[in-house]
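Inputs:
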Amino acid sequence: MLTGSSLHDERMRRFKTAGLYLVTSQPLSAGRTTLEIVRAALAGGVKLVQLREKEMTLREYAALAERVRDLTARAAALMIVNDHVDVALAVGADGVHLGQDDFPIPAARRLGPDLIVGASTHSVEEASRAQTEGASYINIGPIFPTGTKQWNGKFLGIEGLKRIAAVARIPFTVMGGIKREHVPELVCAGARTVALVTTVTAAPDPCRAVAELLATLREAARGGVSGKGSLLSD
Amino acid sequence: MLTGSSLHDERMRRFKTAGLYLVTSQPLSAGRTTLEIVRAALAGGVKLVQLREKEMTLREYAALAERVRDLTARAAALMIVNDHVDVALAVGADGVHLGQDDFPIPAARRLGPDLIVGASTHSVEEASRAQTEGASYINIGPIFPTGTKQWNGKFLGIEGLKRIAAVARIPFTVMGGIKREHVPELVCAGARTVALVTTVTAAPDPCRAVAELLATLREAARGGVSGKGSLLSD
């Protein structure tokens, strides 16, 4: 399936142990900039950041991506760029995340053999196709109702997550309305990487929110719940 | 300034003699698909096509770009992709065209040293900056009022075109509300490449519209008007 370069595989090793996946959104950051949120989240220990800003021009987005690349590199954190493969390549990001209507996965792999290529999936069919097309990981969502993104489909819930997770032969992340109190049931359902927007970006103290989420994830993993993949300290 | 590869320079040689520059827009194609318009325009003799479709998903755009690449390659026509450097690289396009809010010119040159990199400019300042940043050509516009694109600035007119053309040290194209009857005055103002959307895409017979425009361009050039660069048969 996936024939990644050794740099790709090394990046995926780090990806699998990150546990927490911060996805940015400046309009949902309570008046702060994404740069401020990323800085605080890195101080809190996050090791995986996706830059996703839908309301910027591409020129602004590319400039912000350069700064986020600097910050994440200094913190030894992975940086994924939403949607724009060209921006990911230009700033030397670790990966790109693609929605169902975005750039095609096979083309992204060809353009950037070292890039982690993630895909948003909302059903068993989409997950299977993304794997076949060569995705490095899939995101499964939205799990719970969320105001972050317009969504006309249904929310998967824990049962929907389990159905898709059952076909996942590559790492998966979970997203959509996830709060700290959901972490144990998500880990029980096999989730190893939890993606969040507002739980961090809109938190009064994003650094502390990250630190607490990471502690909760570690705790849940230590509980010895079953599931694929490895979490954090593995 | 510009340090293009030899493939880049060869592409620019062809660019400079194309004369007519078709810019696509499926919503402005009188119910026909962009693929149909491109096929007809190539039959009419166009040698320079920019794929610009703002109302498609990136996945649809990338798929269409592959087909347009096939058609243009078979007709020995250049293909430029609007806005998306990743799509241009993925389909092996000859170039990319970037607006003021789009991907940064220097980053595009680094990612694709063989690509023609065009830039939309609307003033002497923007034209100068695009040249400094390494653009292969600039587009100057909008020259005349047009319904094709929302535009809150003023229209340049022939005088505005001349002011910007005077600072152009690289090839330039002209765009915005251009009809066949404008060709002689544009050529007199130094224009050698005329970019058009609806004059071709909305024409009853796009093949014939292209053939007529090319004939008019040739005629105007033979008129021996002064101006930089070379036109068509040079």
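Chain A has a mean pLDDT of 93. Flag for discussion at group meeting.
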